[in-house]
Amino acid sequence: MLRPLTVANSMETSPGAIADTRFFSPTLQLAASSALIEALIFFSAFYVVYYYSVAREARRVARGGEDAKALEANALAGGPALVDADAQVRWQRVFNTSVSQALVVVSAVVALGLLVYLVLSSGGIQAYTTGLANRSDFLSGKSFIGLSYIPVQIAIVYNVLARRQKGLEAWNWVNLVAVLVLVVCAGSAGGRGPLIIGVFLPFLILKQIGPKPFRFRSIALIGGITAVVAMVYSIVIRESTFDNGRSLDRLTQDPLGVLLDRLTSGIETRPFDVLIRLNEVAAVPDFVYQWGATYAAVPAWFIPRGLWADKPFGGGNTWFTSTYVPRFYGVNRVETSLSAIGEAFSNFGIPGVVAVGALLGLVASLFIRARMRRRGLLGAAIAVVVTPYLFSLIRGDAYQGMSTSIASLVILVVFFWIASTRKQVTGPLSAPVPVVDENASAAERERALVGAGVGTGSGTGFGPGSGSGPADEARPAIGNGRAFPAGRPAVTWTPER
């Protein structure tokens, strides 16, 4: 709500740069009211669907409502791919930590090499840094190289989860060096998004699902530091180029004042100003809805411009900026953020806002439900890597957010199949026994759900007394962390979670 308050107080709004600032006239005030209503509708639909889906799954888990067949069907990530009822032979995909570590090394080396090539082909470090201010035009035809940080991120996530699963040191020197490479490559992509979506959020999630999650104070501190880094990055890389260094001079002279002003003014939530402009033009009788055209442009993202010279330059952001903020778009094709709300409204009006909000709420709930159903290594990695893209989808447009999400999913699946092998496991098939006693503790319900039995002390790591059994005791084939029948789960689960 900081941005609406700032606009109302300053009586100025700008969907682009300072040069696009306009007086907050009665017409724009009416458009701002419509924008607030659309935002309320969008997030209401999002949270209603999200909380309903999560609450429904929580009730199922509390009742012990997943039988052996359901758990087997959910074990796509490293679980039983095939069960012979007579011979009791199980086929499982077992993740190899040596291969996952090799993927980390190869991905980091390739990403670093591509970054060096990109910098040298651009004329050196100074020319490359200056050109990033207009990265849409500067990296045209080479933007895929700037995404080389994504395989590094995914390889690190897999390696940490797999090593954590097997009881090895998760953050060994290979992963730590790869993180440095990841930060350099993501920071060189030209935007704050790669740093936030590709580094900060996924590794925060990775930490939170581990054995020692951060407390709220630590999360708030890390989030504050990340916000400061993102704001400084924006000023140094982009804004100082557009205003001939004036913003950088102000930051140097009064860093605390500049950063506090940006935080309290809501300038980082500029999509609200875009919604004001969109509702202003939508009130004109000749406004034409896009009817899905901006979403239909998403597949074009995957085709290199060298193969399709006339492919669209973008989706919703490009359409809006070039049409309604042409001065800002200019010859360098600088885009502003339309947001998921604006893109949905510009395509299908209010019904589109409701539908897209509900759809994103459903997608968000799938990750939580997957964790509640105790997915395996692939499911955990998908939750860590893809969840942050929801922020990109909500703030930006489908052309960028959806396409990078799909690309990440493809790499996740490919890396999983490279680093895992299909092995045959024999032995009795043990199905989980639901807790009959409705007054049983949360720990007992959790242990019964995963097939460990109540009070068995099988060393699963859940609840009190869980370590009383032998560490290498055989685990049930279903509901046990999937990829490693005799190991620990890839994600640490506690009753509090």
Estimated helix fraction: 55-70%
What topology, given as strand order, has the largest sheet? 3-4-5
Please count the helical segments: 21
- Would you tell me the structural class of the helices and strands? mainly alpha
Along the chain, the helix and strand elements come as: HEEHHEEHHHHHHHHHHHHHHHHHEH
The pLDDT mean sits at 77
Radius of gyration: 25 Å
Uncertain segments: 66-87, 428-438, 448-491
Strand composition percent:
under 5%
Protein name: Oligosaccharide repeat unit polymerase
Keywords: Membrane, Transmembrane, Transmembrane helix
Q: What would you say this structure looks like, in words?
A:
The protein is mainly alpha-helical. Among the domains are: 1-65 and 271-409, no CATH class; 70-88 and 427-497, no CATH class. 59% of the residues lie in helices and 4% in strands. It has 21 helices and five strands. It has helices spanning 2-10, 26-62, 68-73, 97-121, 125-131, 135-138, 149-165, 173-187, 192-208, 216-242, 246-253, 255-265, 271-282, 293-296, 316-324, 326-329, 339-372, 377-386, 389-395, 398-419, 442-449; strands at 12-13, 22-23, 80-83, 89-95, 420-426. The strands form two sheets. Strands 3-4-5 form a three-stranded antiparallel sheet. It has a two-stranded antiparallel sheet with strand order 1-2. Helix 17 (339-372) packs antiparallel against helix 18. The protein is globular and about 70 Å long. The relative contact order is 0.15. Residues 66-87, 428-438 and 448-491 have low confidence and may be disordered. Residues 454-497 are annotated as: Disordered. It comes from Clavibacter michiganensis. Residues 454-468 have a biased composition (Gly residues). This is Oligosaccharide repeat unit polymerase. Keywords: Membrane, Transmembrane, Transmembrane helix.
